Structures are given as structure tokens and as C-alpha cells.
Amino acid sequence: MPDTTAYPELVPKTPLPPGPPPRVPPTLDAVDRDLVTTLLADGRASNVALARSAGIAESTALARVRSLHERGVVTGYAVQLDYARLGLPIQAIVAVRLAGQDRRQVDAFGEHVSGLPGVLAAYNVSGSDDFLVHLVAQSPDALRDVVLTHLSGHPGVVHVQTSLVFRSHPGRALLPPLT
Questions:
Q1: How many distinct structural domains can be found in the chain?
Q2: Residues 32-66: tens digit of each pLDDT
Q3: Which pairing describes strands 119-124 and 157-164: parallel, antiparallel, or unpaired?
Q4: Alpha helices, DSSP H only, in 57-170?
């Protein structure tokens, strides 16, 4: 245990509340797994295609997909974009280290960053960095402005490292086999 009298910054300002209780994943049967697999391959699959893929009636497929939504298994659908064709050819991953681990500071930084234009995702991670921020920009100068103004210039940020994305390789195996 470190001597906190010599290092007052190690003493938590306020005790952290306990995290949420562990979530028990919903039980998925073979039909649910077939529907999820089909939706992962094509999020726009019609109800007819979903029913066929799972070998069930269309009304059953509709009810099952609705149940997957209600149970929080399916949380939404997303579109994949070609950012360069939208005038945003620069992609970067920015590693950000904060001065401390105060929950309010971490949460506030996450909220701040996730609302910035061009931010595709902000991940609060373990390790030497606290956040990995994936963003797009119109130009190297625009990227520099975001990094200097909104990331390294943010209170509590002590280190920022920017890595340009040369090419993206989307995962082919979307999920390990569902059991």
C-alpha cells in the first residue's frame, strides 16, 4: 500500500461508488442465434429473409427479433460510410492520458470527446492511456486543430499521441460462435 501522506494525489477525492452489478447475458436458443447471425451479415435483411434463414414462420421471426430488441441483444442498426467520399479523408486514433482516475473527470472527458464533430468513437480503456479516440477530419490541419484545441488542451489531459490510420481492415468473423 503506497504512503498516501507523501503522495496526496493518490488519496481519492471522493470514494467511488460501486459499479453496476454484473449482467447475466440473456439466453439465446438456436433460432435467436440464427437471427443474430443473419442480422450481423445484413442489418437490412427483410423479415422474410430472417424467417427463411432461421426456418421459422414470418410472424415468429418478427416476434423473435422484437424480443431480441426488448432483451437488449439487438441495440440498433448502423450504416457503414466511406468517409473519404464525404470529404473526410483523414482518420486517426488518438491515445489520451488523463492526470488522474477521478470518475467524474473520466466521465466528463468521455462526454466531452464523444460530442466533438468528427469523433466516430471514444473508448475508455485500461493500460497506460485512458482513452482511444477514433476520429475523421478534412485535412491534416483540421486534425491538428481538433487534437490541440479539444484533446491536449482539455483540462486534466497530460499526454496525447496521434496515430494516422492508413487503411482499415474490418473484421470478417463478426462474433465468435454463439453458444
A1: 2
A2: 999 998 998 888 999 999 999 999 999 999 999 99
A3: unpaired
A4: 58-70, 103-114, 140-146
CATH assignment of the domain containing 62: 1.10.10.10
Q: Whole-model pTM above 0.70?
A: yes
Give just the sign of the alpha carbon dihedral 7, 9, 15, 18: negative
- What CATH number is associated with residue 114? 3.30.70.920
Signed CA dihedral, 52, 57, 59, 61: sign only: negative
The enclosing H or E element of 41 equals helix 30-41
- pLDDT tens figures, 71-108: 999 999 888 899 999 999 999 999 999 998 788 889 99
| One domain, residues 93 and 141 | yes
In a domain, 156, yes or no: yes
DSSP strand pairing (90-98 vs 157-164) = antiparallel
**Domain range holding 39?**
30-70
Q: What's the DSSP call for residue 4?
A: T
Q: Which helix (H) or strand (E) holds 47?
A: helix 47-54
The Cα–Cα gap between 126 and 124 comes to: 7
